[in-house]
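Long-time lurker. I teach an intro course on protein structure, and each term I like to show students one example going from raw sequence to a predicted 3D structure in token notation. This year I'd like something fresh instead of my usual example. Would anyone be willing to generate the tokens for the chain below so I can use it in lecture? Attribution to the forum is fine with me.
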Amino acid sequence: MQLSGKRIVVTGGAGFLGSHLVDRLRQAGCEEVFVPRSRDFDLTEAAAVERLFETVRPDVVIHAAALCGGIGANRENPGEFFYVNAMMGIQIIEAARRHGVEKTIVLGTICAYPKHTPTPFSEDALWDGYPEETNAPYGLAKKMLLAQCQAYRQQYGMNAIYLLPVNLYGPRDNFELETSHVIPALIHKCFDAVADKRREIVLWGDGSPTREFLYVEDAAAAIVAATEKYDEAEPVNIGAGMEISIRDLVSKIAALTGFHGDITWDTSKPNGQPRRCLNVSRAAEKFGFQATTSLDEGLRRTLAWYAANCRSLTAT
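-- Reply from a regular --
Happy to contribute to a lecture. Here you go:
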């Protein structure tokens, strides 16, 4: 698909991943990119979604909108995370079908994988068990959108693809401690400790789980490549193909932020899924994607953005 000249809707386009995705589309020559704002279009409501499609009449829809957060936010809001993510996706996919959209790209989540998936996670293992309990409602809601895409392709011939991004990080991320994911939360905690001259930070779990992280600009590049080149029913992992323990990640971020104090692990809090690392061979084979930003380089860029943009550092 040649994207230049297409009318493209990017749900969640004002958010973290979405804003980088919009930038990437515009760099690719896409001049008609529409970003619906929640104040104007409540995507959980069928009437609002219908009004969006009637207003824009998109050729391509990229559904990147999501209500998500770290372990704490998932534990506190399981019902809301399930309802909002399921309803937004179901409404968007159904409207895209009825309006004859040329191509629909739906972004899932690595949280959809079973808790004890063998690593590296293969797309073929997606249905082999129940997700990790702390984020299961969110993961299941997003996984149902894969079933919807495949069912619509089978019954209606709808061109819908489903991508599974791994944990993302980078500039413009959410750094609020109550709702952020692990990298922005660690950056926030370490910088605040340095600014306040504190000698200790307290972190959840025991540091043993492993995670894979993908720089957000690499993720945006992968989504655009898939939009242009991938047209099949099977889901595709989007990742970097690496794995690091939370304990080692903390050491990296502490060193980069200049925090030299004690790390205390609160083992009364959950670890989350034991391991996360993706098999990324399908993305390489089907649309030529490979991550180009190393974790060290991505962390340096993220820290530089945080230092330049977050008010908590202005006093230092």
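Some talking points for your students: The two ends are 49 Å apart (CA to CA). The chain has ten helices and twelve strands.
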